[in-house]
Amino acid sequence: MPIATVNPANGETIKTYEPMDEEELERRLQLAEATFRTYRTTSFAERAALLERAADLLDEDQADIGRVMTTEMGKPVKQARAEAAKCAKAMRWYAAHAEALLADEEPDPSDVTDSGASRAVVRYRPLGPVLAVMPWNFPLWQVVRFAAPALMAGNVGLLKHASNVPQTALYLEDLFHRAGFPVGCFQTLLVGSGAIDDILRDERVRAATLTGSEPAGRAVASTAGEMIKKTVLELGGSDPFIVMPSADLDRAAQVAVTARVQNNGQSCIAAKRFIVHTDVYDAFAERFVAGMRALRVGDPLEEDTEVGPLASERGREDLEELVDDARRGGARVLCGGERPEGPGWFYPPTVVADVDREMRIHREETFGPVATLYRANDLDEAVLIANDSLFGLSSNVWTRDEAEVDRFVRDLEAGGVFVNGMTASHPALPFGGVKRSGYGRELSGHGIREFCNITTVWHGA
């Protein structure tokens, strides 16, 4: 794939970039290593001041970078501005909390005296240059939720961003430079995916984080395992959205629409499989389908657009194949399901019912505004359907019955359970999944410690 901005609303190529050559890549790896040696010694107060400045600049740039993101990957421009605001919020959160999250931990002396120690301390130290392989769907947020904690911990970052969002990738490097971070603290590497393996094998790169597809995660994890390097992976998701009889159906259906089509449906944590108790199935389905039909699809730069185009032609083709396969297998398409005429990579909000386990749409992630609708006879069947997936990123549960909540929290195989609300990431809450959705955690104290050397300091008597 060329490194280029291609407007998904009309298919026009706006700007292309030449990949970095080996000499430039080597220069940047040397710079990252050299910068880390000094940046690691800076204080939390110094790092926090720099990150606060980056947040201020991002707030000032919100409108401009929002338009860039929309032009590069098609999200509605209001959502793009909201993403920029969320990134600034995360920067300020880590600037305020990192020192406490990484404070030395000292066990009670009585607990370690039998080790011969008069005192023991656990200290969190930075690892070094960390490679971040990031996707296009949240081109600012996916990067910042790595970069903010990594920089506050004293690491330096090397970003290999998706090849279809090069302007956003370069903006991020410039943002941290303008904020005053030392040159080399955060660098964007304009290289193709074929360069990732060699970069990860370089001894100067100490760890890697990847958000993206399962195949990409397998490749990075394989190389990192061979090189004995720490990784965090956030991969695909096929999140269940479970509705039980006691739920507020009007509210559940309203949130369900947003949960499915946020970011044009191209979100790992978007609800994708809607599992509804048979007692309220028809009532929920009616509300949900009506809400999906009512969405305004159009130019993502227009303020009232709710669903824009998919980010790539290949992405639309993949989505169409899943819907068509389900239709051939006997599924009913309750709304949408047909490619519209005209330019751009648009696909309508779609609801598919009567899905069975043999259909691809049941097994694979639908990365676009397509929902699958399931009927469950009771709580046990709802859990079985929800867990019948290779993924386990997050989940949504709608019920007012506390006993049911306890059961879902106990039995759902996911990294998160959101009760009577939509899955969302937040700086203070750990984020990540299980099964083929990956491992490790981003955000919160768990996220900032992922790329730290957890060091035991032992003092003799």
From TrEMBL:
Q: Keyword set for this entry?
A: NADP, Oxidoreductase
The protein's matches in Gene3D superfamilies, at most eight in alphabetical order, are given as: Aldehyde Dehydrogenase, Chain A, domain 1, Aldehyde Dehydrogenase, Chain A, domain 2
Which domain of life does this protein belong to?
A: Bacteria
Question: What sequence ranges are listed for the domain Aldehyde dehydrogenase?
Answer: 3-457
What InterPro entries does this protein's entry cite?
Ald_DH/histidinol_DH, Ald_DH_C, Ald_DH_CS_CYS, Ald_DH_N, Aldehyde_DH_dom, ALDH_GabD1-like, GABD/Sad-like
Molecular function (Gene Ontology), one example = succinate-semialdehyde dehydrogenase (NAD+) activity
Checking NCBIfam families in the record gives: PRK09406.1
Q: Which family does it belong to?
A: Belongs to the aldehyde dehydrogenase family.
What is the name listed in the Swiss-Prot or TrEMBL entry for this protein?
A: Succinate-semialdehyde dehydrogenase
